[in-house]
Amino acid sequence: STRIVLASRPTGAPTAENFRTETVDLPEVGDGQVSLKTLYLSLDPYMRGRMSDAESYAEPVEVGETMVGATVSEVIESRSDAVSVGAVVLGYTGWQSHAVVDASSVRVLDPEKAPVSTALGVLGMPGFTAYSGMTKIGQPKAGETVVVAAASGPVGSAVGQFAKIKGARAVGIAGGPEKCAYLIDELGFDAAVDHRAPDFKDQLKAATPDGIDVYFENVGGAVAKAVLPRLNLYARVPVCGLIAQYNDTQAPEGPDRLPGFFTRVLTKSLTIRGFIQSEFVPELYKDFLRDVAEWIEDGSFRYREDVVEGLEHAPEAFFGLLEGKNFGKLVVKVA
Ligand code: NDP
Description:
Layout: E1 2-6, E2 19-23, E3 33-42, H1 46-50, E4 71-78, E5 88-91, E6 98-102, E7 107-108, H2 125-138, E8 145-149, H3 154-165, E9 169-174, H4 177-185, E10 191-194, H5 200-207, E11 212-216, H6 221-227, E12 231-239, H7 258-267, E13 271-274, H8 281-298, E14 305-309, H9 314-323, E15 329-333
Protein name: NADPH2:quinone reductase
InterPro entries: ADH-like_C, ADH_N_2, ER, GroES-like_sf, MDR_fam, NAD(P)-bd_dom_sf
GO molecular function, one term: quinone reductase (NADPH) activity
């Protein structure tokens, strides 16, 4: 079995030196356990957080340990009545070609219902993040304007399409003209704005003539700075991710903007609420699976995957994710 471990903790952007590939023997399959062959590995922005030992909502990966991650795998041996050989399962076995785990830690997928890789994206954690963050915090109403960045990715694309289904105006922010065209032509967003364009701020203004009622925060940084002054009275800001800041090593220089920020929160009666999707799983996961499966079926929900071949390419694909080189939900096809 091949696995990729964390070799050292990054300072700033992660590099190849932070990872190491190892070959190991698989342990025996114990009672109630299954042996898995990884088919797909999900690569997600939160993995940057796990590489660091800064305080966070989850424990870091220890140096020398296998990098964590959600996987879709085939069962090649089973000592559990609940999971049979040949089944395809969703698990959390990380950056490795094989794994032996408790059968209770995996969920059997139905390949007839949807391509199995979607359990890592539109019908998995990222899709649920969008669904729960919008349902509980964003709460878009018909006619309102919703803005989301990283809009061509699995979270952002679902946020915009959710907004459309609720009758709101969806404005996506993405890097480059190709992703922007995709938002409008394929996903049905009302407007798209390129955050890399020199006139980004003007584009954002033109795309949100009535201001912004929901800003689904995926990126932070310069995008958040441009959005903040455009928030309307009673606007809601689900704070989901801050990918523009994950590689930062120190606070930015310049004047202290915190007082100005809080003044705006007060005078515009803003609701700013951070969340980790797992908080809403008990309450909403069933509804999510039912609704999104239905929306995919009736054509009101689309998704795009960016599939990289080979576990050995996981590190470089992950670096690309942090820079916007992926186009759609990034998954590694391992076997
Ligand atoms: P994506 O597939 O959308 O990948 C991240 C994207 O972020 C890149 O493709 C890039 O798109 C964009 N990006 C990177 N750097 C910047 C920058 N400096 N400014 C603006 N955009 C940037 O990722 P996901 O859909 O999986 O995740 C989106 C966000 O949601 C992340 O912040 C992630 O951490 C967060 N998240 C939070 C969860 C929670 O429970 N709170 C759960 C899951 C995800 P582009 O080319 O368009 O710039």
